[in-house]
Write a structure and sequence with these properties.
- The chain has 23 helices and 5 strands.
- It is α/β, with parallel strands linked by helices.
- The chain folds into 4 domains: 65 residues; 105 residues, Nucleotidyltransferase, domain 5 (2-Layer Sandwich); 230 residues, no CATH class; 33 residues, no CATH class.
Length: 495
Amino acid sequence: MGKREVIKHTETQSHKDLAKTFQFQARLQFSTPSLNETQQRLRAELKMAVLTANNNIPLAFHDKLSPTIRSVFPDSKVASNYHSASTKAMCLLNLAVAPLLIEKLVESMRTQPFSLSTDGSNDSGLQKMNPATVRMYDLQNDCISTRFLNMCVTSSSTAESIYSSLNSKLEELLQCSSPWDLCSAVGVDNTSVNIGVRDSIKTRVLQQNSAIFFNGCPCHIIHNAARKSSDEFCRSCTFDVEELCIDIFYWFDKSTKIKNSLQSYCTFCDQDYRAVVKHVSTRWLSLEQAVERILKQYESLKSYFRSEDEPQPRFKRLSDHFNNSMTEVYLLFFQNALSCFTQANQFLQKEEPLVHVLQPQLLSLLKKIFGKFIKPSVLSVHVNSDTLVNVSFSDMSNQLADKDLAIGFLTKQTLNQLYEEGDISEVQKKSFYKAARHFLMSAVDYLIKWCPFNEELMTHATWLDFERRLEKNFDSVEYFVHKFPKILGNITLTS
């Protein structure tokens, strides 16, 4: 409707009559309850406590916050009476906010399906903490939300102890003898205590509700696949990329003099000085970043370790690496090979639910790695027949020749240049290709062994992926109806 039509409508008699009617209608009055000074002060203290908790600010911050608020707002009666140090803030959160949030969460858990996740703390104290979080659909905010349920504390790390703590807490909160009926899935890491086939948390929970889906952490699997492959590469050619990254970081970490010395070499080599990235073996995404940072100032590092002379064993190891012409080739290979692991890991760390795209993403990762060393003719047959996990990747007749391996353009260019200039021998070149094959074969072997490629629920869950709507049929809907009868009820499916 355009402007002319609107003006024409306002000039009609019916519109004028309705406008007169509205003029004489009584208006609804909405009044907000007024708060006295004490209530206003309590509201301010409560809001500040929640604000610090939401932003992970230590509660000790409140010890300085209270006097600051009183001095900054001297003309405010609420501010002048504001007294909330760390102890009071902790009490407000634990005794006022937490019970209300837990009550609302438990109320929803009694009527809605939910999934549960837990992970244990390190065994460094007398007690082991197992924080339990709940993931469910939030009707009020129309989204999937994750909520903290309870810190289940145990005195040991056995499956029996952890399960008993979780189960008793669920029974206590939900006030029922079958708290697992509406639970659809449990997320844990991949240890035998959690998902072992005999005596584990998984076996005990499935005795309560056999429909519950247990899913290990795919990010752990991807990280472990890259790490196992790096170990296999090291066994083949004795180059340990993790050891190199760690040695470089700790060599430059504590000494300003050594850092300034490296900066002078960077200036000499016409490169920008960059701080060395710390690699931690348990941090999923740090290895590729550490390798990239070394390569960005490789010439400067090589010049430094070839020119300086220090007696420490760490320096001797680094000097041996940078005096070896193959080190740059190794690092370039890892820069290329690790990127697909990092991309998959980053994708799976999104906030939104990803169960419907997990299996396709893992298959995509497997396909990318296969594409680096398996012949396209062999790979295409298995891709078209959905039998990617059945590729005979250890059969050399199915693998590409050395010169055709997808090890990265810069890797291949640098390797060939060093060989043509006589800096490396034919034996070193063949040894590198052998190590690269071992890396790739180890990666796909680990992924096939541990990833849920044949998990029926994962396969049917792809039905929820809009991009795959033409590939799916009603069988997937029927699967979930039969899989979760306690959640969906006795639904009768008709054609």
